């Protein structure tokens, strides 16, 4: 990583860290932040499962097993965030029942500013799990998992400990951060199984540069006067979680 990229990485990371810390600590923005994480973690599961099946079909049982565990971890993380929302009597909004909006233009259907910059030069078709280049997936996901582990740890640090809900969330975030560190470790090993350590580090440096550009694209979007974060939560608890709680109560009784 060049010195200029390193400096920009530090600046961008500081900006993102401030935004996430503020969002998770503020009771007004915490639900939407938790919902965003729930959607992101749970949303990654199908892709990881498809990649695991693909790796197994290609004869890479080691990677297939790692991806299966990765998918299970992300699924559990989604459940953790759903439970954290339940503690606030909130749940992720049911998008299927939302009024349909007018068809968007091609430009409006683009990925988020972050992912648009991160995967610049790649089409949506090229990023599908059944065709994505393994080196692209491994290196890009390594960067995301490594940084996510630090982000979750930082968010845990700013949560107050004077009430139970925040203490429980702090423990959960630290657990998730630890999982993300493990994901980054196996991805780095996977890359070194495919190329020399020097080539692996060079590829990671390239994706680090992409991540820096993506962070500033995201921050720029957040700072726009007309920027408005979409509402991701609604009041209430999902029926399946109420049923799980009822069954738990009966078991205790």
Quick synopsis:
The protein has helices at residues 3-25, 30-43, 45-57, 61-87, 113-118, 134-158, 164-194, 197-222, 239-252, and strands spanning 90-92, 233-235. By secondary structure, the protein is mainly alpha-helical. It has a single domain, classed as Ferritin (Up-down Bundle).
Work out the count of structural domains.
Answer: 1
Tell me the name of the CATH class: Mainly Alpha
| Continuous helix count | 9
Helix-strand category: mainly alpha
Strand content: under 5%
Structure summary, number of beta strands: 2
List SSEs in N-to-C order.
HHHHEHHHHEH
Spatial order of the strands in the main sheet?
1-2
What is the straight-line distance between the termini? Answer: 58 Å
Question: How does the overall form come out from the CA principal axes?
Answer: globular
CATH topology call: Ferritin
> What composes the largest sheet?
2 strands, antiparallel
Determine the mean pLDDT.
Answer: 85
**CATH architecture type:** Up-down Bundle
Helix content range: over 70%
Low-pLDDT stretches: 104-110, 246-253
Q: Cα-atom Rg, whole angstroms? A: 19 Å
Features:
mainly alpha; 9 helices; Ferritin; two-stranded antiparallel sheet; disordered C terminus
